[in-house]
Structures are given as C-alpha cells and as structure tokens.
C-alpha cells in the first residue's frame, strides 16, 4: 500500500457521522481547491443514510462547495430508481433533493436495465467522459469513494467468491448478490483503488467479527472482499463505531 490507512473508532454512530461529514468537507474542499470540480461516489445500505442526512444540514450544506461536486454511485441494485431498495433513491431523499443538485451532476447507475453488461459499459463511459479521459484506459481517479461493509465482508456489490472480485480492466461490471434482488452493478477494485480517498463506514455489533477479520486476519481476498480495498496512492479511512470495533485487537490510529 502506498497511501495512508487510518482506523478511527468513534463512540457512537452519531459521532461517526460527524467524523464522516468532516472528512467529506475536507476532501471535497481540498479537491476543489486543487483541481476544480470534483467527483465522489456514494454507497448504499443503511449505514450511510445518517451521514448523507447530516451533510444536507447546516453547517455542511453551506460549508461544502456542492456546486462543484459530480455524484456517482459505487454500486446499485437492479431495481427502479424509485424502489425503496435503490441506493440512488436513498441518496436522493437523504441528500440530493435537499441540496437541489441539478440532474446533470447526478450520475445514477442504470442497474434497472435489462442488459446489465451494456449498462456497466455505459456507466464506465459516463465516468470517463466526466473526467475527460479515454474510457479504455486506466480508471478515473475519484476524489472520494464512500463504502460500507456487509456482515460477509462484501463492499459495494463485490461479494465473496464471485467473479467480479477478480476484474482487472473494467471499472464497472454486473455482479450477483447472494440475496434478492441478486443482480447488481458495481465498481470494481481497479476503480475503487484509484480513488484519492476511500471512506469506509462500519456500524454495529454484527460487523465486529467480519471487521476484525478484514483488518487483522491474514489476507483471504476471495472470502473477505473488503480486504481488496487498498488505494494505490490515496487515503483509506475506516470510521467504525465502538460496537463494530469490539473485536479489534488494535486501537485507533
Ligand atoms: C449496498 C451497499 C453495500 C453496503 C453493505 C453494508 O448496495 O447495499 O453498497 O455494500 O454498504 O451491504 O450495508 P449496511 O450499511 O446496511 O450494513
């Protein structure tokens, strides 16, 4: 690993969301100062909702230069965008509508399409076009990728012992989850690991055992997909609450 790996243990989910909001503010402001408009990827699941709601409120709503942010998703379920399980639906409700983000800066993952392989290619093309880079070259460098971790140590929609874990060239691929709706679209590890910052949010006692395995056990990359998150030249920040950290041997960095 070239980049910086930090593990912060927070007293509560609320403290974790505040730390996450501060990281968003710092990374987005830094990116915009350094390079102008920036691009981030949101994730799904239940954990990020509290963070997105906080980011829509004061002071983050006005403090962060949201008009310079392009929004992407690290994965999406094969459901309509208005379906309650849609990661886009959650983010639109929790953050995007409140910030009144214009549609042209919201790059929804079209996972409801029948041909998911074509949808994955189109999303890769949209990423490349936004960054002004060739779509068949090295993955774009997102400024911030928000991730969660499942109790099976999956992240995004990169599940244990699935082919998507081993993708080396494509930035976005179809994947299959072990739970309905099984079909997904997901970032691949080449794209995730090009990010300037990857922010993991992990909350709850049900994540304690897998988190300890991911962070402190021997590498077992097919069984523990989250171990594959290893930014080549970027910051990896784990924000975990006390309950999720309860099985960790190491303290906070
Ligand atoms: C998704 C997420 C997924 C999520 C984990 C953790 O689309 O569901 O991308 O990877 O982050 O499953 O989910 P919770 O935060 O709900 O525990």
Q: Would you mind describing this structure in some detail?
A:
The chain has 253 residues and is an alpha/beta fold. It has one domain: Rossmann fold (3-Layer(aba) Sandwich). Helices cover 31% and strands 19% of the residues. The chain is built from seven helices and nine strands, in the order βαβααββααβββαβαβ. The protein has helices spanning 13-35, 47-55, 60-63, 87-99, 116-131, 189-192, 208-216; strands spanning 4-10, 38-42, 69-73, 75-77, 144-148, 172-176, 183-187, 197-202, 235-241. α1 crosses α2 (47-55) and α2 (47-55) runs parallel beside α4. It is globular, with a radius of gyration of 17 Å. The two termini are 16 Å apart. The structure holds 6-phosphogluconic acid (6PG). 6-phosphogluconic acid is lined by residues 43-47, 75, 87, 148-150, 154-157.
């Amino acid at each position: 690993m070239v980049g910086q790996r930090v593990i912060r243990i927070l007293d509560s989910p609320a403290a974790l969301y505040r730390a996450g909001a501060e990281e968003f503010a710092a990374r987005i402001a830094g990116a915009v100062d350094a390079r102008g408009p920036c691009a981030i990827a949101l994730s799904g699941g239940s954990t990020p909702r509290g963070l997105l709601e906080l980011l829509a409120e004061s002071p983050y709503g006005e403090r962060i230069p949201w008009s310079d942010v392009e929004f992407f998703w690290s994965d999406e379920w094969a459901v309509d965008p208005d379906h309650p399980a849609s990661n886009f639906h959650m983010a639109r409700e929790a953050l995007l509508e409140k910030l009144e983000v214009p549609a042209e800066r919201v790059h929804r993952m079209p996972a409801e399409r029948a041909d998911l392989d074509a949808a994955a290619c189109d999303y890769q093309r949209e990423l490349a076009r936004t960054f002004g880079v060739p779509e068949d070259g090295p993955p774009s460098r997102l400024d911030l990728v928000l991730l969660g971790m499942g109790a099976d140590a999956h992240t995004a929609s990169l599940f244990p012992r699935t082919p998507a874990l081993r993708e080396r060239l494509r930035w976005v691929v179809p994947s299959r989850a072990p739970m309905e709706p099984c079909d997904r679209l997901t970032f691949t590890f080449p794209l995730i690991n090009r990010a300037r910052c990857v922010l993991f949010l992990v909350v709850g006692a049900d994540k304690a055992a897998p988190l300890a395995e991911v962070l402190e056990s021997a590498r077992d990359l097919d069984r523990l997909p989250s171990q594959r998150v290893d930014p080549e030249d970027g910051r990896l920040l784990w924000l975990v609450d006390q309950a999720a950290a309860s099985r960790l041997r190491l303290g906070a960095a």
